[in-house]
Amino acid sequence: MSEHNDTIDALILTAASNEWVKIAVMISKVFEAPALAGIDGLAQMVAERVYILVDHGRLASQGNMRRWREGEVRLLDKGIDEKGGVA
Predict the structure, then answer these.
(1) Distance between CA 76 and CA 81 in Å, rounded?
(2) In this predicted structure, what is the pLDDT of residue 56?
(3) Could you give the percent of the chain with pLDDT greater than 90?
(4) Which of 14, 54, 72, 87 could form a disulfide with 81 if both were Cys (CB 3.0 to 4.6 A apart)?
(5) Model-level pTM?
(6) Helices within the chain (DSSP H only)
(7) Distances in Å between the alpha carbon of 12 and those of 51, 58, 86?
């Protein structure tokens, strides 16, 4: 599992933008990457990497991230904190 973390992280950050996107959509975008074809449990792995990227300040989040259709993420902007307010 951990051998894919760097690849998954790079794909997540490439798929992310400054606009809010549902975590389910983010997982779907990464899931389609040929580099990760055939990995069992990929959706959960991607979700876990999204949570880690949020915890490490690489992505901002809003809503309940554990509910993939409700929670949203985006790239952090300089001057904006991870909850979307002015830092």
Answers:
(1) 7
(2) 94
(3) 61
(4) 87
(5) 0.81
(6) 5-15, 23-31, 42-55
(7) 11, 10, 24
